[in-house]
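Title: Prediction job returns without error message
Component: structure pipeline
Severity: low
Priority: P3
Assignee: unassigned

Description:
Job completed but the reporter wants confirmation the result is attached to the right record. Sequence as submitted:
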Amino acid sequence: MIMKRFGLVVLTATAAMTLLTSMAVAAQACSNPCVGGPGCYPTLAQAIGAAPAGSTVHLNAGVFAGGVIINKDLKLVGEGASRSIVRGGGPVIEIVSSTTTVTIQGLTVTGGVTTGDENGLGGGIYIPEPDTGAPGATVTLRDVVVSGNKVMPGKTIPSDDTQCPDGPCPYAGAYGGGIQNDGNLTLDHVTVAHNSATGHASESDGGGIFSGVGLLTVEHSTITGNIANPLDIGRSSEGGGIGVFSGGVVIRDSRVDGNLAALTTSYPAKVDGTVLDLHASGGGIHIGDNVSPAVLERTDISGNLVTADDINGEIYGFDGAMTVGNSDATMNEITVAHNVVTARASDSSDPGPSGTAMEFDGPGTLTNSRIVDNVAAITVGYSKDAIASVTEGLAVYDFFNDPRQVTVTGTTISGNKAYAYSPKGQALVVGVGVFNNSLLTMKDDVVQKNSGVAAGPKADAQGGGIWDGVFLSGPPVQLRLTGVKVTGNSLSVHGDGKALGGGLYASEKVTAKNTTISGNHPDQCYGSGCP
């Protein structure tokens, strides 16, 4: 109640308290604004714009428009991923400035469609790289769902170094269907699901997450159902779930499952005598060269898929679970299971075998892990000169003339299967459990019940358990076995050829100590390097 006394306006105690409360609420809304509901901003963009640096923006339950930019230290907190939803835009949320620290918690980021120029970057969340080349913003996602986002390029430009039948190959890239990280990003109890890097692109990388600069840390999180699949002009597809180009990556206590790296095209095998590199790889994870650190612990990489299809070209597909380039990788207690590679090509003579569940192209350690029940299959065309070659399980290569040591300890490699089919030419299976082309030490491992089948007019199969020798890389090639059991592996051929080394095929000298090679079919060891 308002009373007038001596010409002055006087407030009763009740009215004064009401006014003071309103002023306090207004001040709080300014320092820590909210979105949706009484006394809150109607849009997320308005609340972010009004929020002082270092404040918290609270997102009430509801669906709110995306397409927002965060350019200051901020916490964005929702009421849970099922209740607070930020939808739309391209990207949904962009976080700029290398000095910015941002936490996003308890919400869903969805429905983003980013169309860039020749590079599409980040369908759901985009953390750009500053002009300095240093990592961008430091961002933490906690209890967040990033789902149903898409990235694709908006135009093409001519490639500098690759020729297609009509001239320079068109280039366009799609990176990070769910998240593009060029900063320092941590995922804590986050689900990244059903995002895609696609469109009229020559290459797609990171259907769920692509990390180009800085450190990517994934903990207690799930990366599932994401797709890297360039359309129309595609030449490479990598990292269906996660692609890491440079910087570092740490993945702990997480699942990477059900992701897809796919490439379907009709390019020819060669242009002016030069083989076109056409491939799909890393159905779950693709880690590039010089990534440091590269650490995986207590993580399940299962049920991922690589498909490569070009009956006119020498396309190949590899690493259904994970590719590790020339990076020093440390892995402990990981499970690589039920991943699949399928390839259909005119020939595989030039690129070499399709297949494998995971590979090391540089140094690394793998301990207390399982590589089990993965499958690879390749079919080639009807030329009598065509070769269908395949491998499975674990592969170790040296493509840089700098052989580095890989050590595998306490690991089971079991139940993997490889199939090669050439209706008119040659089918070749090489190494179903392990394929070594570099420096490999195995300690206290079990390599068992892996099987390979080659079928064609000419068919050969080598190394049901382990294949060791010079093939795609080497020499030098060196295999040391200590306390390893190689048992129950098998090879079979359907055609004019031989199955050799059901347990171990060794064309280079193998050193073995306290190692058992028994119960394999059709034989235990074949080659001049047998221990």
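Comment from assignee: result matches the submitted record. The longest helix spans residues 13-31.
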